[in-house]
Structures are given as C-alpha cells and as structure tokens.
Write a structure and sequence with these properties.
Order of helices and strands: HEHHHEHHEHEHEHEHEHHEHHHH
Bound molecules: zinc ion
CATH superfamily: Metal-dependent hydrolases
Helix content: 40-55%
Number of strands: 8
Shape: globular
Number of helices: 16
Largest sheet: 8 strands, parallel
CATH class: Alpha Beta
Strand order of the largest sheet: 1-2-3-4-5-6-7-8
Radius of gyration: 19 Å
Structural class: alpha/beta
Amino acid sequence: MDSFIESLPKTETHLHIEGAIPWELFDIRFPGEFPQVPEFRKPDFRYDDFQQFEKILIGHALRVIKSPEDYAEIAKMLFAKQLSQNIAYVELSFHAGMIEFLKISGECIIQAIRSVVPDGLEVRIFMGMRRDSYSSFLGPLLEEAVENWEGLYGIDLHGPEDLPTKDWIPRLWSIANANGRMLKAHAGEFGSAQNVKWAVESLGVKRIQHGISASDDETVMELLREKGVVLDLCPISNYKLRVFDNWDDYPIRKFLNQGIRCTISTDDPFSFGNSLNDEYKYLVRYLGFSASDIAGIARTGFQTADLQEYQKKEWINRIDHLLSLEEGGRL
Ligand SMILES: [Zn+2]
C-alpha cells in the first residue's frame, strides 16, 4: 500500500508557503543552530493550542523570509519535494500580512513563486488573509490585488476563527468573484458548523479549508453536498492541533458517505513534519482506508482542479490504472 500511495498522482490544495519552509533550509542558512528534528516536528508531538502553533511558526518564518527571493527559494525546494511525491497540481497561498510586515510587494511575491514552478507541476497562487487583516495600509492593497494583480488565482481567509467577521470580508470576496478569482476560506477548524455555513452562503466559497465541524450539523453537510463545495482536509494538522482527539472521531468517512467531495493536504508541513504521502498513509493506518478509498480521494483532487478536461482525464486514467494493478496484485 505504501508504494501505491507514493506512486499515485496527487493534488495538494490546502498549503501555506510560510508554513511549508523546508526544515533543511534552516541548516543551510544557520548551520548548527537548529536541531536535526525539533520537538514540534516529531510524529507524536501535539500543540497545546493554536497560539503555540502560531508562535513557533511565525518565529521561524521570520528568520528566513525577508524578501521575494526568499519566497522563491522556499518555493523551489517545496516544489521539488512535491514532484518527488508525484504531486502534479498545487494550490499554494501566501499570507497577505507579510506584505505589510516586511514592506515587500505582493505582486513580487507572486512573481517570485511563479518563476520557480518546475515542468510537470501546475501551481495556482492564492493570497491568504486574517479576519483582522484590513488595516489602513493593507486594506486598499487587498482591493487592488483582487481587481488587478496578475497571477493571483484566488483568495483565502485564515487565522483565528473567533475574530469578528467584519463587513469588508464579504465585500472583498464579492469583488474577487466579479474579477474571476477563486474563493476559499478556512472554516470549521476550531469554529462551529455555522462558520462553514457563513463561508459558503456569505462569501460564496467553492472550497472550504478544513470544515471539520460541519460534521456536527446535518443541514450544513447538506448545504456542502448540494453546492458541490470541496473540503480540503488536513488530517495530521487537525490531529496535532487537537481539533479532534481520537482518529475514530475524524469525520472524513462521514463526509464521503454524505456525498461531500474531500481532498487531502498537508496545511503547514514545516509545523507538522508531515508529507502528503504521510497524510494518505495515516488514512490507511488509522481509518482503515482501502486502495480504492485512497484512489477516490486522489481522483477528487484532479476532478476539482483547475485543469483542462483532457488533463484531468489523463491523471484519472493513471490513477485507475495504478488501482487496478494494486488490487490485482493482492488477489
Ligand atoms: Zn490552512
């Protein structure tokens, strides 16, 4: 099963570049200063809370990221890791707050990332922002971005879900939609199913990042199914951030049984020490997923990707072929 997972063509549609700094980069930049495996990247480590997670992530990210060139270096290493796992399509976000904090250009960040996309990998770039990101400095830039920035595929809402949802958020999502940008939001990670409902109904998002708590509310699950909203799930992230305690409680099967489309991603591999292959292997190990279940997740990834129909078909045929070999080999 491990080699089946590794060889399977995959997509990754929930990934933050600041949370995806390859650990090796710290040794390259600061030789000897960082341990080979820090405590927080060990498989059994779980964060006390979201604040601890953010503190460790931001503290490290700011050591490395100062300029668009740093984004390019991180993206180049990240994309190489993704290709080595047979990932063919990626939706990657950068944090809008970095524009204000580092006083660097968001368009330059996008161009820097785009400049290192290798052959064989399709990459779509999103700008992520928090519920309190609309400052006097950043607000006008966010509006300019969704209207005019070249190479900005879409926007995403992230960070603490308990911050108030201000009016600028639906307004910006609506302008972004009118300008053909793809809409996402993090919801239902630590917040309730109502947050998921709000993201779908008030922001018009087509993809929810996480959405775990939707499993508490039949009507919200029905809404997701009816609107064809995709849940970009990150099981290891959810486990390490204590969104759930026991793997038996992880609702992915419940979602799939309800006809809700689900994909799998790593979220912040810097913080969780995970790879996309690990995510799939955990579904097998902890949730009893079969090769066919695994192939189904990978298939959904391509079906819901921004690719040409013939490309989707090629990838899905490849998945089906590998599945038949895997199942045939075990008869
Ligand atoms: Zn996320």
